[in-house]
Specification:
The chain has helices at residues 11-20, 51-61, 84-103, 138-155, 177-183, 206-218, 239-249, 262-274, 277-291, 299-303, 312-316; strands at 2-6, 25-30, 42-45, 65-68, 108-114, 161-167, 170-171, 191-194, 200-201, 204-205, 225-231, 237-238, 257-260. By secondary structure, the protein is an alpha/beta fold. The structure holds NADP nicotinamide-adenine-dinucleotide phosphate.
């Protein structure tokens, strides 16, 4: 099976290239960071915003599966590149899906989307795939555009098989910034407990993403049509639990706990919700991240028979 992994130089794509290349014919792409390392991965430079080179690559590889990991996670606040996430996560995803279907209509197109498509202000329960998406920031909006354009390609018969993965914030042993934001002060000088610290969040070990992709490719006939899955570790983590696991892992030199009293936290949340338009999106999104549960239902993923065996405990210890 020929697999094309875009964003093969990135955090997730690099692991997928390593994991899948011993058993599949893998072509990985990069933009600015040419990966070193030996074959068997065939490396190609690709700018997904360049339609001619996208077409050339699909003509050359005609992949049986595409794992589209190339994306822009950080949104530039100023300057002419403010719409970059839209062009890369949205527009270019449509182009890649179109070319995938053009050169191999039965191609399985896997799109790494994000739980940010659900947006803020969600109910006090875990969010399921069929829940409405109301992203507030550019990141979630552009990812949702990518999802919608792929759905439209399937509806128009230009692509038959699309698997959208809404990833919870990822981590691995060497990269935990997504989690540290919730439990450490900026600079990492101190753990911080917001309110009771019992807020919970879904997170996703990068190793579980690789296991999931192996699971999908082993039974790819089950993933026909247009399907969407939340991808997260088997259970969410409370902030208190994360602090405990971080402490026990010895990753940080011992440092004190600061506590933010619940009253102060609630006032901050109310203020963030009422903030004037310009600053509201990022402030509210930050407030949601530290004040409330952000849990995504993994039942649909578990219903496939897949078990995410990696967790904060197994990865960080
Ligand atoms: N990591 C997470 O916590 C998380 C959570 C939810 C969703 N996701 C999604 O999962 C995907 C992969 O995430 P990641 O953490 O691996 O991201 P990452 O480490 O930032 O990697 C992004 C990749 O995209 C490539 N890229 C960026 N712009 C490109 C362009 N114009 N043309 C071609 N390639 C381009 C980069 O290439 P170079 O580095 O070579 O320039 C890099 O390989 C992203 O779409 C992200 O939105 C990630």
């Amino acid at each position: 099976m020929r697999i094309l992994i875009t964003g093969g130089s990135g955090f997730i794509g690099s692991l997928l290239c390593r994991t899948l290349s011993p058993r599949f014919e893998v072509t990985g792409t990069f933009l600015r960071h040419a990966p070193g390392g030996p074959p068997p991965v065939r490396w190609r430079r690709l700018d997904v915003l360049d339609p001619a080179s996208v077409e050339r690559l699909f003509r050359e590889v005609a992949p049986d599966a595409v794992i589209h990991c190339a994306g822009v996670k950080r949104v530039p606040l100023f300057g002419k590149n403010r719409d970059l996430p839209r062009r890369v996560n949205g527009g270019a995803t449509e182009l890649l899906g179109f070319q995938a279907g053009r050169f191999n209509p039965r191609c399985l197109f896997v799109y790494l989307s994000s739980v940010s498509v659900y947006g803020p202000g969600h109910p006090e329960r875990s969010l399921r795939e069929e829940d409405p998406c109301r992203p507030a920031g550019m990141s979630g909006t552009s990812k949702l555009e990518g999802e919608r354009s792929l759905r439209s390609l399937v509806e128009r018969g230009m692509l038959q098989n699309v698997l959208v993965l809404r990833l919870a914030p990822c981590y691995d042993r060497t990269w935990t910034r997504n989690l540290e934001r919730r439990i450490l002060l900026p600079g990492g000088f101190s753990y911080v407990r917001y309110g009771s610290g019992e807020q919970r969040m879904s997170a996703l070990s990068r190793d579980n993403v690789a296991d999931w992709m192996e699971f999908v490719l082993a039974g790819r006939d089950r993933f026909g049509g247009f399907q969407v899955y939340n991808l997260c570790d088997e259970r969410p983590y409370s902030f208190n639990e994360m602090i405990r696991i971080f402490r026990e892992s010895g990753r940080k030199t011992p440092c004190p706990d600061l506590s933010v009293p619940p009253g102060l936290l609630h006032r901050f949340y109310a203020l963030a919700k009422a903030w004037p338009r310009e600053g509201r999106v990022s402030l509210r999104s930050y407030a949601e991240k530290i004040c409330r549960d952000m849990v995504y239902a993994g039942e649909k993923m578990l219903g496939t028979g897949f078990r995410p065996v990696h967790s904060l405990e197994t990865v960080l210890r």
